Amino acid sequence: MVTPVMPTYARADLVFARGEGPYLFTEDGERYLDFGCGIAVTGLGHAHPHLVAALREQAGLLWHASNLYRIGGQERLAGRLVAATFADTVFFGNSGAEAVECALKMARRHHHVNGRPGRFRTVVFDGAFHGRTLATIAAGGQAKHLEGFGPPADGFDRVPLHDGNALRAAIGAETAAILIEPVQGEGGIVPVDTDFLEAVRASADEFGLLVIYDEVQTGMGRSGRLFAHERSGVAPDIMAVAKALGGGMPIGACLATADAAAGMTAGTHGSTFGGNPLATAAANAVLDVMLEDGFLASVEDKAGRLRNGVEDVIARHGGVFERVRGVGMMLGVRCHAPAGDVVGAMRDRRVLAVPAGDNVVRLLPPLIVEDRHIDEALAALDAVGGELAP
Description:
Blueprint: E1 16-20, E2 23-26, E3 31-34, H1 37-40, H2 49-59, H3 72-84, E4 89-93, H4 96-113, E5 121-125, H5 134-140, H6 143-146, E6 156-159, H7 164-170, E7 175-180, E8 183-184, E9 190-191, H8 194-207, E10 210-214, E11 238-241, E12 252-256, H9 277-290, H10 295-316, E13 321-327, E14 330-335, H11 339-348, E15 351-352, E16 354-356, E17 360-363, H12 371-387
Parallel strand pairs: 3-15, 5-6, 5-7, 7-10, 10-11
Antiparallel strand pairs: 1-2, 2-3, 4-12, 8-9, 11-12, 13-14, 14-17, 16-17
């Protein structure tokens, strides 16, 4: 018998009633340290005072007016994102998948208005994840996401990550863009080498293509920079952003250069709720915090403490854990034990983590964690290593 909530998730039997900082609390008052952040969404933790104040103020003024009219908070947010990035313009939606869809449409439209309507294909990479719409599951290409939904949407050519020869071989007369995550998230926290990002950029420039970065999970401070690609110095033409942008409020954004977005004129794309006053109030409040002097530097410092601690745990429990990879506050622990068992055992110790591909456990703490919270998570991981030892 089907449940009222469609059973599309394998949920843990937990109901959280409130959150505070890095902690979630059940209806019974049990406290859990949240090192999953709603899958990299609550980057500033739960009930951050500045975000709460911004939402309360906006909720008493205006929730929705539609994109038939100018939205002041949206214009402010777009201006701040443009000032902080490579981009000249921003489109707002509600989710990461919508941001990626906008990016794919934009790339095709760019070539159309420049007299190359036959260019519609996008080169994508093994291990990628770009969302759950029909187009984005085709871009991701994972069999478990494609099964049962008919023929995958056309327009995507998949190549191995870090294989420059395969990348160049996949580029043809119909290629419009190259889509890549600077750090693969769902695929197992796999950072892309700077040399390969440079090769992607060089190939795109040589063949007149657009580079699209999917920074839905990696963006908004998680890497220790506002966006992960800043660590490489290699800029895209288009970038999809969501998750932590709203601190928990649904909002996605597609950032682009003026050239890449030249074809996106009135009527070519739209969203009923995208960039509404509530969502942009939350996102502006997130930027208030993340753009403060010293904030991202503190993330880098705490990330170093976390990684060093994880490496120490792995050294003590090599039969359970293999290695750690990632950047900033986006770490993946590749396991010998089943990653699901590790996540479950961590949860039994009141610490939340998230599984990923390649038998990886993701550690995605809020960026506002303190040393004592990091130590609490490390103690739980260490205990799990002892419990699951072969």
